[in-house]
């Protein structure tokens, strides 16, 4: 028998790990997680059967819109062991992303500026978090092998995998589901990403945190497009995040005036949430907003050709949008800005540009029509809801870092 096979033979399967060793390992996993930059790690089992009917109801109502990937894997999303065979535990991790000087109110207030969701101003989180989770898996493996156990079967996932990440994180004790449907941590608010390591070791389970929104309904009342149609349920088709990031084609006209200057995602439901008053800033400099995306001037952004767009957004989640949809979103924001000669000229000029397609052209025409209407009926102003969100931020309800 070759040497390697022989040594393999001597290793015990991880299923034989005694619970005392599993408890020690769980503590170490949390410590390693923190060392790798995660704000918190929790552990849950793979039973999401209670979520299945709620998830199915959401799909049945077509709330996922064009996001075909939400239904293409069926109930696998609620069954981690089907996604990665052998999984018995999910190690759920969260990583804070709130950048310093987020300046929410400043950019929402300035209609000539494009508002970019604060999760997206820095480096794309997917790869970064997946690498961190992979390293966590390797540490677990080394630890177990040093104790004479075989390698565990593990796999990291972040966001794009067909898994219900929030219910998992909830079970793992990382937070409760807020009425905006995001995960909220009592000490850290909601400005964090989620990721998981699926694994086959019987680690001790953490305890879920009880829902604590109480009678608050601030997020529901402040959503610019009424996308939170009832507590805990978001109709993605109405959500600005979906409209500006996920939707491929034209943005339905009814939503365009409500989008304001939000050109990539939306943070409003988190901006009015009182739990975010305690939210810490990210420790990851990679998530800091890039200089050219801090209060970016709409005209400047609109002037980028495709090459410039691709260059500037390299390594950023914004790149996935593509140049056409970038222009589509900016055209809407320009259409919502108080009319001015430079804005009207920029729109006219872009119409002549070879790079634009029929979809973008239609949005530019819409923006021009908005400006024409303003010339006839008076200048546009921020919607009442946006004014309220700005006031809430300025009052210090959330940390306007
Ligand atoms: C699809 C998706 C979207 C869609 C749909 C959003 C949605 N609410 O489903 C769109 C494009 C709109 C979106 C927007 C955003 N997203 Co998103 N999105 C996802 C994704 C890929 C899947 C979410 C999902 O499974 N939705 C399906 C529905 C059915 O799930 P659900 O909302 O959790 O539904 C549960 C509740 O409705 C619950 N429920 C039903 N009835 C009741 C009743 C009670 C009492 C309770 C407690 C619960 C409950 O049961 C359902 C099933 O479990 C996840 C990543 C992932 N793989 O999980 C990221 C994710 C949820 N998104 C994230 C983020 C950051 C955002 C944005 C903030 C981005 C932005 N700034 O623009 C916005 C926020 C909008 C919002 N309020 O939700 C983060 C959230 C982190 C956190 N702290 O929770 C995630 C986890 C990505 C990540 N890896 O970090 N997103
Ligand atoms: S992200 Fe914006 S549009 Fe979407 S639910 Fe929250 S407030 Fe509404
Ligand atoms: S704004 Fe209020 S209701 Fe909405 S998630 Fe925060 S605490 Fe819950």
From TrEMBL:
Q: Matching InterPro entries, A to Z?
A: 4Fe4S_Fe-S-bd, 4Fe4S_Fe_S_CS, QueG, QueG_DUF1730
Q: Which cofactor does it need?
A: [4Fe-4S] cluster; cob(II)alamin
- Where along this sequence does the record place binding of cob(II)alamin? 77, 159, 177, 183, 194, 241, 266-267
Please give the biological process terms from Gene Ontology that the record holds: tRNA queuosine(34) biosynthetic process
The record lists [4Fe-4S] cluster 2 as bound by 223, 239, 266, 269
Q: Which residues bind [4Fe-4S] cluster 1?
A: 213, 216, 219, 273
Q: In which pathway does it act?
A: tRNA modification; tRNA-queuosine biosynthesis
Please list the residues that make up the active site: 159 (proton donor)
Where in the sequence is the signal peptide annotated? none
The protein here is known as Epoxyqueuosine reductase
Species source reads Shewanella gelidii
This protein's gene is called queG
């Amino acid at each position: 028998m070759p040497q390697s096979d022989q040594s393999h033979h001597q290793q015990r399967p991880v299923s034989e790990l005694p619970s005392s060793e599993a408890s020690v390992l769980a503590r170490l996993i949390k410590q390693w997680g923190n060392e790798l930059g995660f704000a918190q790690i929790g552990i849950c089992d793979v039973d999401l059967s209670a979520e299945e009917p709620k998830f199915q109801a959401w799909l049945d109502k077509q709330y996922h819109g064009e996001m075909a990937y939400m239904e293409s894997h069926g109930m696998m999303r609620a069954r981690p062991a089907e996604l990665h065979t052998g999984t018995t535990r999910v190690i759920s991790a969260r990583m804070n992303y709130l950048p310093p000087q987020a300046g929410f109110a400043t950019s929402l207030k300035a209609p000539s500026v494009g508002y970019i969701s604060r999760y997206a101003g820095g480096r794309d989180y997917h790869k970064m978090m997946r690498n961190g989770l992979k390293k966590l898996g390797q540490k677990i493996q080394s630890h177990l092998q040093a104790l004479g156990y075989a390698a565990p079967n593990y796999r990291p996932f972040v966001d794009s995998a067909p898994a219900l990440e929030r219910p998992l994180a909830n079970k793992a004790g990382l937070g409760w589901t807020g009425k905006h449907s995001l995960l909220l941590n009592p000490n850290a608010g909601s400005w964090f990403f989620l990721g998981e390591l699926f694994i086959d070791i019987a680690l001790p389970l953490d305890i879920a945190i009880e829902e604590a929104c109480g009678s608050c309904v601030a997020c529901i009342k402040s959503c610019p497009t009424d996308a939170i149609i009832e507590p805990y349920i978001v109709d993605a088709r109405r959500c600005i995040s979906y409209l500006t990031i996920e939707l491929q084609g034209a943005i339905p006209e009814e939503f365009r005036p409500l989008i304001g200057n939000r050109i990539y995602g939306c943070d409003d439901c988190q901006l009015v949430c009182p739990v975010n008053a305690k939210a810490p800033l990210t420790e990851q400099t990679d998530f800091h907003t890039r200089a050219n995306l801090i209060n970016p001037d709409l005209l400047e952004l609109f002037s980028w050709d495709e090459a410039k767009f691709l260059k500037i957004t390299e390594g950023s989640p914004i790149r996935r949008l593509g140049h056409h949809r970038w222009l589509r979103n900016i055209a809407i924001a320009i259409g919502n800005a108080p009319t001015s000669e430079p804005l009207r000229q920029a729109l006219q000029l872009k119409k002549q540009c070879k790079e634009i397609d029929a979809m973008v052209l239609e949005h530019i025409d819409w923006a021009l029509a908005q400006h024409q209407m303003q010339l006839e009926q008076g200048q546009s102003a921020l919607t009442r809801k946006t004014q309220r969100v700005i006031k809430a931020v300025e009052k210090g309800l959330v940390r306007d870092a």
